[in-house]
Design goal:
The protein has 140 residues and is an all-alpha fold. The protein has one domain. It is built from six helices and no strands. The longest helix has 32 residues. It starts with a helix and ends with a helix.
C-alpha cells in the first residue's frame, strides 16, 4: 500500500508545512498588518520600565518578525530546512526571554507548541522529509 510505504514522508511534509504556516502567518501579521512600528509601540511601555533601549527593542522586533515570516515560507518550501529550524528556534528563545522579562508568568500556550514542532522537525522528521527544495537541489 502506498500510504504504508510513504507514511513517514507524508507525515513529515504535513508537520513541516503546518509548522511553516504557523510562523509565516505570525510573521506576516507582525510585518504587514501590525507593522514593525506597531509591534515596537506595543512593547515600549514595558521595555521602558526595564530600561531597554528603543534601538534594541526595534532590532529584536525586526529580527523576530522577519525570521518568523521568512522562516515560515522557507519551511513550507523545505528550503535551507536545517538552518531555518535553527533560526526559528533562536527566534523562540529571544521571544521567550522578552516575554519573560516583561511578564515573568507569561502564558506559553502559543510558544510551547511551536517549540515542540521545531524539535519534532529537527530531531525526528528531517531525516524522512523527501518533499523539499533541499532534496530537489541537493542542498545539505
Amino acid at each position: 500500500m502506498i500510504i504504508d510505504q510513504n507514511k513517514y514522508e507524508i507525515f513529515s511534509l504535513i508537520v513541516r508545512v503546518f509548522t511553516g504556516l504557523l510562523f509565516l502567518f505570525q510573521g506576516y501579521d507582525k510585518v504587514f498588518k501590525v507593522g514593525i512600528k506597531g509591534c515596537v509601540e506595543a512593547f515600549k511601555v514595558d521595555t521602558y520600565k526595564l530600561k531597554i533601549p528603543d534601538s534594541l527593542l526595534t532590532m529584536v522586533v525586526v529580527f523576530t518578525s522577519f525570521t518568523e515570516f521568512l522562516g515560515g515560507a522557507f519551511l513550507i518550501l523545505g528550503f535551507l530546512y536545517k538552518y531555518t529550524l535553527i533560526f526559528l528556534g533562536l527566534d523562540l528563545i529571544i521571544v521567550s526571554i522578552a516575554f519573560g522579562l516583561v511578564q515573568p508568568m507569561w502564558d506559553t500556550k502559543h510558544a510551547f507548541p511551536r517549540f515542540l514542532l521545531i524539535v519534532l522537525n529537527m530531531f525526528v522528521l528531517i531525516q524522512f522529509d523527501k518533499f523539499t527544495l533541499d532534496k530537489l537541489f541537493k542542498i545539505d
